[in-house]
Design goal:
Blueprint lengths: L4 E7 L2 E2 L5 E2 L11 E6 L9 E9 L3 E8 L3 H11 L5 E12 L2 E13 L8 E7 L6 E10 L1 E2 L6 H13 L3 H5 L4 H24 L23 H12 L6 H11 L1 H6 L26 H9 L1 E3 L4 E7 L30 E7 L2 E10 H6 L5 H22 L28 E5 L2 H9 L9 H16 L10 E4 L1 H8 L13 H8 L4 E3 L7 E3 L5 E9 L4 E4 L7 E7 L4 E14 L5 E7 L4 H9 L1
Parallel strand pairs: 3-8, 4-8, 12-21, 16-24, 17-18
Antiparallel strand pairs: 1-6, 1-11, 2-3, 4-5, 5-6, 7-8, 7-10, 9-10, 13-14, 15-23, 17-20, 19-20, 20-24, 21-23, 22-23
Helix pairs in contact: 5-6, 8-10, 11-12
């Protein structure tokens, strides 16, 4: 068999940067197959195919014997490999199957020459994922260097070379046998050596390590730690009060005057920090799932100034005379009686501008090169704006009426704070539920979670008798309230509701959505009663968001020459309101002040 070079296409038990591990024999069925050898996984032109690779499955992984073709691109690629400019391979594989984080099966479709310098170590670059249990395509890098072979090399020589390389222990193998403390010492030695070499380069001296970081020189050598110092530091690090080697060195240096003056920079003993997740910082945010539900399910209208009108023909008290009458034939000279007047219910809602403004210094935009900071900032701004609008729709923005930044309830009417004609406000009586369920045997049969859940369900179902909204509503509540109801158990310890769908059936709602933004929210009624929000039942098709053309969410940017800043604005001009009477239900818990608190208030 003749070939130009060989190398590892992939290695077994290779933990990649995304957490997946290539398992042994994952590509066993590719043994003996020949696949194209391409340039940097490019498929847009025939000249990108520079040869072919024969695959061999081994205990360590899949090994590739590669031969270049006689094309111009093949000749160039061969010269790059022979000169050492290109030193690594990767594979393109599909039909990947996983068992947890372990890749156990795949089909190698091609082997590619890649720039090893740009891909140190091992990782998987996913191309397309179709689901957790379905096929996936990926480019898998190993970071292993190539081995140049003579065309006349025999299979026997190749086998002997492979066996000898397996028996040879590498530097990495030796290093991995060290303990964590021993590795820390090695890091310190390497760090000091690099520091010395850098100083020598600046002075034009030879690149030689002048001293060991742990060697003493009778106090004349700067930046040194004696062996006795290191023993004391390690013992200090072992103590429960310290816990880390870096802290121990800092404490030891503070307590030893000669050492603290002689050692200028403790950080050089430790390796540089590396990002766990390179690129844009991971975004820490509040629960956004319900926000997208509100923005998607609410009815949209192209008219920003809206008016709702209803005729109240219910005659609730029977005093309006909205009834039919019988006519007495014997009293034909008596006039028929007109019915009473119906009541017109009308309200109008005007739009308000809601915006999010920010700025970035141009120097920062230029200097941040590992991700697009402008688009990242726009993403945060759009998310904030959506959350603000959704919060204003459901419970109001929480600002006081005198705040200039408040989203007015006259423009975006919150469901929770809406008039009783539109939102039914219901108090949940937990004490009554406790009495009805347990009687005099308090705590014998039912747990607190079960009582709480039953009180919520009872209030929800009874309040639905007045509900006039469209179809089946959804339930929005805090994650804690949902967990309380899901953890409700009977006297035998069995859960009453096995899943969220079971609880939704008991509540007679379509879906249950959690919103951590509802946690601890209270309102004060016109009677100065404080009510704590528990949850909201609403079909968002009955809530209308209105915006004329030009009032939709729009983003702007402007450069400020004086301050060298890019300024960004994202805004919308909308109105919003429930358009059907009795179309929402707000469950609340009365907040009762303790007697001690009332006495304190009176004393104040």
């Amino acid at each position: 068999m003749t070939y130009d070079f060989s190398g590892w296409a992939t290695k077994n038990n290779l933990r990649c940067s995304d957490g997946r591990t290539i398992m042994k024999d994952a590509f066993k069925h590719n043994d003996g197959q020949t696949v194209p050898l391409v340039w940097n996984h490019q498929h847009n032109a025939p000249e990108n195919v520079v040869g072919h690779a024969l695959l061999e499955n081994r205990n360590e992984g899949v090994y590739a014997y590669c031969s270049f073709n006689d094309t111009e691109s093949g000749t160039v690629a061969k010269a790059l490999v022979q000169h050492g400019d290109i030193t690594a391979l990767s594979i393109y594989a599909n039909q990947l199957r996983q068992n947890g984080a372990n890749v156990i099966h795949g089909e190698i479709r091609e082997v590619s020459l890649v720039h090893a310098g740009a891909n140190p170590g091992a990782f998987i670059d996913s191309v397309m994922a179709h689901g957790d249990d379905s096929d996936e395509e990926a480019i898998i890098y190993t970071g292993e260097e190539l081995t140049l072979m003579h065309s006349a090399e025999t299979e026997e020589a190749k086998t002997k070379k492979s066996e000898s390389s397996e028996e040879e222990e590498t530097v990495a193998d030796v290093f991995n046998t060290l303990t964590e403390k021993q590795k820390t010492v090695v890091y310190a030695l390497i760090g000091q050596a690099l520091e010395d070499n850098q100083n020598d380069d600046e002075k034009g001296e030879d690149n030689k390590m002048k001293h060991n970081v742990f060697d003493c020189d009778n106090g004349t050598q700067q930046n040194t730690l004696c062996h006795s110092d290191m023993v004391n530091i390690i013992n200090l690090a072992k103590s429960n009060s310290v816990g880390s080697l870096q802290d121990a060195i800092g404490i030891y240096m503070e307590n030893n005057t000669s050492l603290s003056h002689g050692f200028e920079d403790i950080d050089q003993l430790f390796p540089e920090y590396k990002d766990v997740r390179p690129g844009a910082p991971e975004l820490l945010q509040r629960d956004q799932g319900w926000v997208s539900v509100v923005m998607q399910k609410a009815h949209k209208s192209p008219i920003s100034r809206i008016r709702t009108r209803q005729i109240d023909a219910r005659d609730l008290l029977g005093t309006a005379g909205l009834r039919g009458y019988g006519y007495d034939d014997e009293k034909r000279n008596k006039a028929k009686v007109n019915a009473g007047n119906v009541k017109l219910l009308k309200r109008t809602t005007d739009p308000q501008t809601v915006y999010r403004k920010d700025a970035l210094h141009r120097d920062d935009i230029i200097d941040i090169t590992d991700f697009d900071v402008v688009e990242y900032q726009y993403g945060i701004m759009r998310q904030n704006l959506n959350e603000e609008i959704a919060t204003a729709i459901m419970i109001g923005d929480g600002r006081t009426d005198g705040d200039d930044s408040k989203i007015s309830e006259d423009h975006i009417r919150s469901i929770w704070n809406d008039d009783e004609l539109y939102t039914i406000h219901v108090d949940v009586d937990f004490e009554q539920a406790k009495s009805e369920l347990q009687g005099t045997g308090t705590g014998t049969y039912f747990g607190e979670n079960y009582i709480y859940a039953e009180a919520i369900i009872t209030a929800a179902l009874y309040s639905r008798e007045k509900y006039k909204g469209t179809g089946t509503p959804d339930f929005f509540c805090t994650p804690h309230l949902l967990n309380i109801m899901l953890l409700a158990r009977d006297r035998n310890g069995r859960r009453i509701y096995e899943s969220k769908s079971d609880l939704a059936k008991a509540l007679n709602v379509g879906e249950i959505y959690t919103a951590e933004q509802f946690e601890g929210k209270t309102r004060t009624t016109t009677k100065n009663e404080v009510k704590k929000l528990l949850g909201i039942f609403v079909n968002l098709a009955d809530y209308q968001i209105d915006a004329t053309k030009g009032g939709e969410i729009t983003k702007f940017n402007q450069f400020d020459i004086d301050f060298n800043q890019e300024k960004y604005l994202i805004e919308t001009r909308i109105s919003g309101a429930l358009t059907r009477v009795y179309s929402a239900i707000a469950l609340e818990e009365p907040v009762v002040e303790d007697d001690d608190e009332e006495e304190d208030d009176n004393q104040d």
